[in-house]
Specification:
By secondary structure, this protein is α/β, with parallel strands linked by helices. Helix content is 56%, strand content 15%.
């Protein structure tokens, strides 16, 4: 290869620097593809801890396989490096779009998911040894390994910071994939053009340009790709979709039915949401004499707040929700304002954007009633909000005689998960009473009342309720044998038993 460098000392330095920059790009893009796969798997399959753990493990193992395979590349190392870079650009750049499109079209989504992760990891693992061998032949310096690894680690840091802070909020997952695919292919093109032997790589250059054109087209078609994938997944026309740093928000509309989905999970249907929210709110507030200060944890759609404001004695409602995009959406959209009656705009309502666990630890105010309206415990990040540690913090916020309600999944489909919530509340020192109602969109759905004192009978319900009556309230506390209480563990931060029970029971139901 010495003949390739004839023409002065500037050329080797320039090529060497370019190849070191490529190490940075390889590392950054590789980690971005890994994060894309983990985030998509969390959105679509739930349980973020499991998804990220298995994807990172698969990716690192594949890198090891790729590194081992590099020993079989005996010649044309530079050409192989360029081809691998272009191949990573094509596969990694399109990975997010492809996974979105096939999610509802394959029987086992995990097979293509882990197949793509393994392919990308293997190719990245093949690149690094090739890059080091190419640099060793072209440059004379003793600290080759340290320089390559330094650029590699800096790239990993850049990816880990850019992904949550800039890329997901502003580009979204699909566009992010295409952008970093373009970064990969740009490196390949730059390396080819900088080399004296570029005439021997005309085919690779043509392919790289074609891949770049395809990635650019994909970037501009990202919104259409996303819509196509989500229409297939949700079935109904999508009128709103947004990927926030915390979740994927999708709203569909067919006829008069509005539906909200968070990370693919149905949160409400406008046709029957009143059943759920009347059952969440009124068994609590009707058991508190003249409730004045009310706390809502979650519930950024304002539908629970709509029910709370039916009590004239209420003077203050504090709503704590992690995602500002939710509360802003349900405070501004005319269609959604009609649904929640503009509840979040009420002067009585104070919206706080915060993690509920962290907020409770610093809260000094007491409340007469508390509504806990978190999503189901599909992963450990949400599961922490169902632990005894969280409920102990919640108990501190209860005024004497205060009552709270926790949405607690289906006691018919997931009875062990349901009763674990009750057991955990009791472990926090609270008295509990479970109840359930039928919500057509969800089926049989459960809640748990809890208080620092014995829970009494309901007082007068507000006028104009569509579902809950004194008789319905009374019947809700009866559990037939298939939903009856059973021994369950306490859900703790260090065991997250509830998440595992929830996942196991719903997996059986959905299979």
């Amino acid at each position: 290869m010495a003949d390739d460098l004839k023409g002065g000392t500037a050329r080797p330095s320039r090529i060497g620097g370019l190849l070191l920059v490529s190490a940075f790009v390889v590392a950054t893009c590789g980690l971005i593809y890994e994060l894309l796969a983990g985030t998509l798997a969390s959105y679509l399959l739930g349980d973020s801890v499991t998804q990220f753990s298995t994807i990172i493990g698969t990716y690192l193992f594949a890198m090891g396989v790729g590194s081992w395979c590099s020993r079989y590349v005996k010649k044309a190392e530079l050409a192989v490096f360029v081809r691998v870079e272009v191949l990573i650009a094509a596969i990694g750049g399109c990975s997010a779009a492809l996974l979105f499109l096939i999610f509802d079209r394959v029987q086992d989504f995990r097979l293509p998911l882990y197949g793509l992760v393994f392919a990308i990891g293997g190719l990245v693992g093949l690149e690094i040894p090739l890059l080091m061998r190419i640099l060793k032949d072209r440059l004379e310096f003793g600290d080759l390994v340290s320089k390559v690894l330094t650029f590699d680690y800096i790239g990993a840091l850049a990816a880990s910071l850019l992904f949550p802070l800039l890329l997901v909020p502003h580009l979204g997952l699909i566009r992010t994939g295409f952008v970093f695919g373009l970064a990969n292919v740009a490196v390949a093109i730059a390396v080819i053009l900088a080399l004296p032997e570029r005439r021997r790589l005309t085919v690779e250059l043509a392919v790289a340009i074609l891949v770049a054109v395809a990635l650019i087209a994909g970037f501009f078609a990202s919104e259409r790709i996303e819509r196509t994938a989500e229409v297939a997944a949700y079935g109904d026309p999508i009128i709103y979709a947004d990927a926030t740093p915390y979740q994927r928000i999708v709203i569909t509309k067919r006829g008069g039915d509005l539906r909200l989905f968070l990370n693919g999970n149905l949160q409400f249907s406008s046709r029957d949401e009143y059943r759920y929210h009347e059952a969440l709110v009124h068994p609590v507030l009707s058991r508190v004499a003249n409730p004045r200060d009310v706390l809502v944890l979650g519930g950024g759609d304002g539908l629970a707040v709509r029910e709370i404001l039916k009590y004239p004695s209420v003077r203050s409602v504090t709503l704590v929700d992690l995602d500002p995009a939710m509360t802003q959406l349900f405070s501004k959209s005319a269609m959604l304002l009609a649904l929640n009656k503009g509840s979040l705009r009420s002067p009585k309502v104070h919206v706080i954007t915060a993690d509920a666990f962290s907020w409770l630890r610093t809260n000094q105010k007491g409340f007469d009633a508390v509504l806990v309206d978190f999503p189901d415990p599909t992963n450990f990040a949400i599961g922490k909000l169902y632990t005894v540690s969280f409920y102990r913090e919640l108990a501190r916020a209860l005024n004497p005689g205060a009552v709270l309600s926790v949405q607690s999944t289906s006691p018919l489909v997931a009875p062990n998960a349901y009763w674990t919530v009750s057991t955990t509340l009791e472990a926090a020192g609270l008295t509990t009473r479970g109840y359930h109602v039928y919500v057509p969109s969800f089926g049989e759905w459960g809640f748990v009342l809890a208080s620092n004192r014995p829970i009494g009978q309901p007082g007068r319900l507000p006028a104009g309720l569509k579902f809950l009556t004194p008789n319905a309230d009374s019947l809700a506390f009866f559990f037939p044998p298939d939903m009856a209480r059973r021994p369950t563990p306490v859900n703790r931060l260090d065991n997250q038993a509830l998440v595992r029970e929830f996942e196991a029971e719903w997996a059986v139901y959905e299979s």
